UniProtKB/TrEMBL annotation:
Keywords from the named record: Hydrolase, Metal-binding, Zinc
UniProt domain Metallo-beta-lactamase: residue ranges: 13-195
Organism: Chryseobacterium daecheongense
GO molecular function: hydrolase activity; metal ion binding
Cross-referenced PANTHER family: HYDROXYACYLGLUTATHIONE HYDROLASE GLOC
Protein name: Glyoxylase-like metal-dependent hydrolase (Beta-lactamase superfamily II)
Named cofactor requirement(s): Zn(2+)
Length: 212
């Protein structure tokens, strides 16, 4: 049985997640920790629960989702999983930091690219990859059908969708991706977003003003 632990980090109230199982194997998703206090919170959870981080997953590479990426890679020394279309976004990290008024170094990590339809396996629990661009060119969703949940990044929120006014954003593309890839899934599927509270596919199909 998979467990999900969320943390709210940095200036954007970004959701960082750890998914782990009874074997204490775990994935770290979107490490957004940006200071010592936030890094200690996530480190303490991993240590106190005896977890082994096997992969670092990115839903996309916007600055608020990768502020702790270099720390995570240096600490756990495991591959960073992301879509190739967001490599350009990750490469712009230093410039993005300047826009927000702080210095951040370019990240130097080992990256493994994933594509639409790929499967990732955590001790027998499979996650299917959906490429849903529009918020960023390489935004992906990690979906576990067995336990009916997904990590959606900034694709879909409770009552909202990701911004499309950022670099290579595309409103029509995002809406189409949500409708054709996510809204066809079980309505009980929980959605763990990159910001805000969890929701469900069924709730968003009925009430999300962007998608009704």
């Amino acid at each position: 049985m998979l467990q999900i632990q969320g943390f709210v980090f940095n200036f954007a109230s970004e959701n960082t997640y750890i998914i782990y199982n009874e074997n204490k194997n775990a994935w770290l998703i979107d490490p957004g920790n940006m200071n010592e206090q936030e890094t200690k919170a996530i480190s303490d959870f991993i240590i106190n629960n005896g977890l082994t981080i096997q992969k670092i997953l990115l839903t996309h590479a916007h600055i608020d989702h990768v502020l702790g990426l270099q720390w995570a890679f240096d600490t756990f020394k495991v591959p960073v999983i992301m879509h190739q279309e967001d490599q350009e976004v990750l490469d712009m990290l230093q410039m993005s930091g300047m826009r927000f008024g702080f210095q951040i170094n370019p990240v130097k990590v080992d990256i493994k690219y994933i594509n639409e339809g790929d499967l990732l396996d955590l001790d027998g629990e499979q996650f299917k990859i959906y490429h849903v661009p529009g918020h960023s060119p390489g935004s992906v969703v990690y979906h576990n059908e067995n336990q009916k949940f997904m990590i959606s990044g900034d694709v879909l929120f409770e009552g909202s969708i990701g911004r499309t006014d950022l670099y290579k954003g595309n409103y029509d593309q995002l809406i189409d991706g949500i409708r054709t890839k996510l809204f066809i899934l079980d309505e009980e599927t929980q959605v763990f977003s990159g910001h805000g509270n969890p929701t469900t596919i069924g709730f968003e199909k009925q009430y999300n003003p962007f998608l009704r």
